[in-house]
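I am writing to request your help with a piece of structural work I have in hand. I set the record out below, with my sincere thanks for your time.
___
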Amino acid sequence: MNPSVVSRAALANVVANGVIVVTGGAVRLTGSGLGCPTWPECTDGSIRPTPELAGHGLIEFGNRMLTFALVVVAVATVVAVFASVRRDLRRLAVLSLLGIPAQALLGGVTVLTGLNPWTVAAHFLLSMVLVAVATVLWLCSREPGVGQLVVRRPFALLATGIAVTVAAVLVVGTVVTGSGPHSGDPEAGRTGFDPELVSQLHADVVFLLIGLTVALLVALAATDSPGRVRRAARDLLVVELLQGVIGYVQYFTHLPALLVLLHMAGAVLITVYTARLLWSVRGPASELPLGDDTAVLRTATLPGAVPEVR
């Protein structure tokens, strides 16, 4: 299998996972979360929406049908990977595929529990995990194989800390959503938390995230770190700042649906760029930082390598 085919299939998998998150947000923001009030059927005795459900039923049913498109893309990715020589990609491809039925089952639980805010949050967070897995799969498909750590270990640990903080931002963000007005259906419950209080907590964690990202970017710029890592940190910071602007505007404009949807799309992008940052700290041995005393030793162990004389 041509490597470019594998890469294109993996990229399509990333896009499909991101799109279904955004369309799921549109279901909630239009109040169509219970447009199909049961699962796996839309209504009792019918897999399709009935005329009585009107537009809400069509919106929810349409989003469910997108899951099948996602399955097709994920299966195509698995086939392409297994037909290639890249055995290292197989685990990620299979994991990306298996996550879809898990996500569908969790979506069914969400419907059957009347859009309980905690199951809605879990549904969204699992989607973020699948986006991250698909992103790493795509990025790895563009390189010949997994390489060495190309930054100093403290920088790699800081990148991991950023990823953990992103996870915290997403988790707290779901609590904000579960406490706010966009429940997905007028009858759906809320968390009971004060929306203003959890929004402030969310903002505090975002400030921490931006601070950590700035610290990493400054540290990378001040050393001999590879450009791939500096670019990944820079691009993540840009996305974080744009997401922060959208978050503040939507808060002070009382959460208009369009801005909330853009904020959800921003969450997808932050997940993608965070996965890219974690991926970027490992790469070809040729990108090992020259200032790292272990770089010479690692490079010297490569077949045909000539130790550097300093």
